[in-house]
Specification:
The protein is mainly α. The protein has 13 helices and 3 strands, in the order αααβαβαααβαααααα. This is TIR-NBS-LRR resistance protein RES7.
């Protein structure tokens, strides 16, 4: 399952770290692995039936949860033929594994227990062979979710522009990102006055926080050249992540 997920992420163009694929030969595994965890925006944890048997896996998980608390890392748990409650409450195989760890790795047990409790409480995917949980379908959904939560653009705003940081902070504050509502922000000014610069910079910073997003530029010029239908197709295709064809402007609006 992990191999198929890794291949799907790579095919989507998402830089993915998997120790047996990415680690240079001869390099010490642990420091490189911890560094990879720290530098990742998202950590995908696949909880299998025997996951808790491995002190190595539990050490990794504890470090991931630490990155969640200190760096705001996103964790996506996948419960592969185990129930989230088994992970969260240490039931069945997880309970058996911890009975063994209590005698052999007692100094680490408490941090492992807290990490499992926290990770098991995060909403993720449960794959158990039922008709609604076919692996190929789930992998497609997981890759789509990860893709939607990663920045699609890197801002190339010149930070030496006088006052640019203040403008960006002001614009972001007006968006009220934590309000949960809908916001429309207008930036008004003469042509060439620098409206697109802060708008595109803020888009690059926040777009990964949305399931759907799109940046449309030069709308007047593009609509004059190609019609609004082409802009509608671009907008819908990017937001819905599908190849959308629009027959008319009215159809595009609906």
């Amino acid at each position: 399952f992990v191999d198929h997920l890794y291949a799907a992420l790579e095919q989507q163009g998402i830089q993915t770290y998997k120790d047996d694929e990415t680690l240079p030969r001869g390099e010490s595994i642990r420091p490189a692995l911890l560094k990879a965890i720290q530098e990742s925006r998202i950590a995908v944890v696949v909880f299998s039936e025997n996951y808790a048997d491995s002190s190595w896996c539990l050490d990794e998980l504890a470090h991931i949860i630490e990155c969640v608390d200190t760096r705001g890392q996103i964790v996506i748990p996948i419960f592969y033929y185990v129930e989230p409650s088994d992970v969260r409450k240490l039931k069945r195989k997880y309970e058996e594994a911890f009975s063994k760890h209590e005698t052999e790795k007692k100094e680490n047990v408490e941090s492992w227990r807290k990490a499992l409790e926290k990770a098991g409480s995060i909403s993720g995917w449960t794959i158990n062979g039922t008709i609604n949980c076919h692996e190929a379908k789930c992998i497609k959904e997981i890759v789509g979710t990860i893709s939607s939560r990663l920045p699609t653009l890197s801002t190339n705003v010149n930070k030496d522009l006088i006052g640019i940081e203040t403008r960006l902070q002001d614009l972001k504050s007006k968006l009220k990102m934590e309000s949960g509502g809908v916001r429309i922000i207008g930036i008004w000014g003469v042509g060439g006055g620098g409206k697109t610069t802060p708008a595109s910079a803020v888009y690059a910073e926040i777009s990964h926080r949305f399931e759907g997003h799109c940046l449309l530029q030069n709308i007047r010029e593009e609509s004059n050249k190609h019609g609004l239908e082409k802009l509608q197709e671009k907008f819908l295709s990017l937001v819905l992540k599908a190849d959308v064809k629009v027959g008319s402007e009215i159809e595009g609006r609906s």
